[in-house]
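Researcher: Good morning. I'm working through a list of sequences from a screen, and I'd like to move beyond sequence-only analysis. For each chain I'm collecting a predicted structure so we can compare shapes side by side. This is the next one on the list. No need for commentary yet; just the structure.
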Amino acid sequence: MAGRGEEEAAWTLRQTDGGAQSRRRPQSFFNYLRMEPAMFDELVQRVGPRTEKQDTSMRKALPTGLKLAITVRLAISILP
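Model: Good morning. Structure tokens for this chain:
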């Protein structure tokens, strides 16, 4: 059985594919972000236009879904 850190690292790595793998396992998605994939997709659609950045010659911009997942996960960890 994987430890918590290993599970989180694996989940985060899967996000490079747009979350497609974790959406196939909705319970894992819910356990990590505490929301259903459909709600997460709605949030991405709502905040996406405001948070999208352009790729530069130095680096690729982070996808909106990844930035939102990081923010939601941080909020979960600091709220009682």
